[in-house]
Design brief:
There is one protein chain. The protein has 131 residues and is mainly alpha-helical. Helices cover 50% and strands 6% of the residues. The protein has 3 helices and 2 strands; from the N terminus they run H-E-E-H-H. The chain has helices spanning 22-31, 56-104, 110-116; strands at 33-36, 39-42. A two-stranded antiparallel ribbon has the order 1-2. Strand 1 (33-36) and strand 2 form a beta hairpin. The N and C termini lie far apart (70 Å).
């Protein structure tokens, strides 16, 4: 049993098909049906997109989109890499603190720790429940 696809929908104007006469629909129907494994598959005609690259508004929009994409992906990656480096430094500092305690019996002082690791902006924040 063969199945046919009947296109009764009207396509938007940007697709390039302003009028949908019966003959035109039939032409679309025959040109856009492919046989795959005995079944009919409908493909949609593609519309062309014309971009005027000489328009300054277009260039600003594209530049803004690219810059937003770069910053939106790059900033979190940068902060993740800084967090990983800080974790490595903290682990080295903890190991140094353990060795100092084994050798001298005392831990490192706050001033010595600050000399090895600069405080981050999250270290200065006070987390309080304001409820």
């Amino acid at each position: 049993m063969g199945s046919t696809v009947i296109c009764k929908c009207s396509l938007p104007a940007f697709v390039g098909l302003q009028s949908s006469t019966r003959a035109h629909r039939k032409q679309i129907q025959h040109s856009s049906i492919r046989r795959k494994g005995g079944r009919a598959a409908r493909t949609v005609p593609r519309a062309g997109l014309e971009i005027d690259w000489s328009d300054p508004d277009t260039l600003i929009g594209v530049a803004g989109g690219v810059l937003g994409l770069v910053v939106g992906i790059g900033a979190p990656l940068f902060y993740i890499s800084r967090d990983e480096k800080d974790e490595e430094r903290l682990e080295e500092l903890r190991e140094l603190n353990r060795q100092t305690f084994k050798e001298t019996g005392e831990y490192l002082t706050e001033e010595e720790i600050k000399a090895f690791r600069q405080p981050r902006w999250t270290d200065r924040r006070e987390f309080q429940d304001d409820d």
